[in-house]
Amino acid sequence: MVGLDFDKPIIELKDKIKELNEFSIKANVDLSAEIEKLESRLAKLQKEIYDNMKPWDRVQIARHPNRPTTLDYIPYLFTDFFEVHGDRTFGDDEAIVGGIAKFKGLPVTVIGHQRGKDTKENIRRNFGMPHPEGYRKALRLMKQADKFKRPIICFIDTKGAYPGKAAEERGQSEAIAKNLFEMATLKVPIICIVIGEGGSGGALALGVGNYIHMLENSTFSVISPEGAASILWKDANQAKQAAEKMKITAPDLKELGIIDEIIPEVKGGAHHNVQEQAEEIEQILLQSLKTLRNKSEEELVGERYIKFKNMGAYLNV
């Protein structure tokens, strides 16, 4: 079982309970009283740790190697998913997946960042960091959705857009800027959900929505804590302090008015139960779509504009 620094005691206790259960069966010895005590202690420990998580703890959960990805959630949330490939300009970028599906019988367009679960898949998907063709593929799907009046659902989960030479040569900045501009004008409901890391412009390129929701232990920021620490203190090891100062967690961003709703996570993080987590996401999608489908095209575009215009503070100089 993969553990994090702050929940190491929980992992060790779970392993001990599992060990006692196995020994009890193998040796035909009744250890139910001891196991019950350990389970009671585990419940108390989980509440104590998970109810008092710091920003850096949430960063660790958002980066957990087993954290569910876009393709993990799709089978639980949608039916008849048909993946679309390529941007019709350069090629296909597997760091972004997208296609057409049905949500409770309603045709929708689904787009999301996609990272790998092991080294081989991470290399294939470029560790979830899209090239320009990935954003152009996403925009092609969005425009198609706009044409056929399909709501758009975006899952955000990336450290950021790929910063390499090839990406810059093919117009990385322009591709991101084009997505921001075009998403602002689409006349269909757009719902964005941050399911892991929402990093920099790479996340924003799928993040101009009528609603922006976040899983409880996700992050959303203009730069990583390590990057901010390198700039502010010339020391990436100060990332923990940077995470606290940057206000990048769901509770902080909800308080600042950047996001709309916090989606509760199962105890310890979404990676502990993907199906249960998908059910939580399903509820917020149902509520959001119910509200947005009753709005006119003008209202959808206008409210999206006002939403982003109201972010931040303005000073008359």
From TrEMBL:
Catalyzed chemical reaction(s): N(6)-carboxybiotinyl-L-lysyl-[protein] + acetyl-CoA = N(6)-biotinyl-L-lysyl-[protein] + malonyl-CoA
Enzyme Commission number, as recorded: 2.1.3.15
GO biological process: fatty acid biosynthetic process; malonyl-CoA biosynthetic process
InterPro entries in UniProt: Acetyl_CoA_COase_a_su, ClpP/crotonase-like_dom_sf, COA_CT_C
Pfam family, one: ACCA
Domain of life: Bacteria
Pathway: Lipid metabolism; malonyl-CoA biosynthesis; malonyl-CoA from acetyl-CoA: step 1/1
Keywords: ATP-binding, Cytoplasm, Fatty acid biosynthesis, Fatty acid metabolism, Ligase, Lipid biosynthesis, Lipid metabolism, Nucleotide-binding, Transferase
Domain CoA carboxyltransferase C-terminal: 37-291
Compartment(s) of residence: Cytoplasm
Main location: cytoplasm
GO CC terms, sorted: acetyl-CoA carboxylase complex
Record keyword Lipid biosynthesis present: yes
GO molecular function terms listed in the Swiss-Prot or TrEMBL record: acetyl-CoA carboxylase activity; ATP binding; carboxyl- or carbamoyltransferase activity
Xref: SUPFAM superfamilies: ClpP/crotonase
Similarity field: Belongs to the AccA family.
Self-association state and partner proteins as the record states: Acetyl-CoA carboxylase is a heterohexamer composed of biotin carboxyl carrier protein (AccB), biotin carboxylase (AccC) and two subunits each of ACCase subunit alpha (AccA) and ACCase subunit beta (AccD).
NCBIfam families per the UniProt record, alphabetical: accA, AccA_sub, PRK05724.1
Function: Component of the acetyl coenzyme A carboxylase (ACC) complex. First, biotin carboxylase catalyzes the carboxylation of biotin on its carrier protein (BCCP) and then the CO(2) group is transferred by the carboxyltransferase to acetyl-CoA to form malonyl-CoA.
Name of this chain's protein: Acetyl-coenzyme A carboxylase carboxyl transferase subunit alpha
Organism (species): Niallia nealsonii
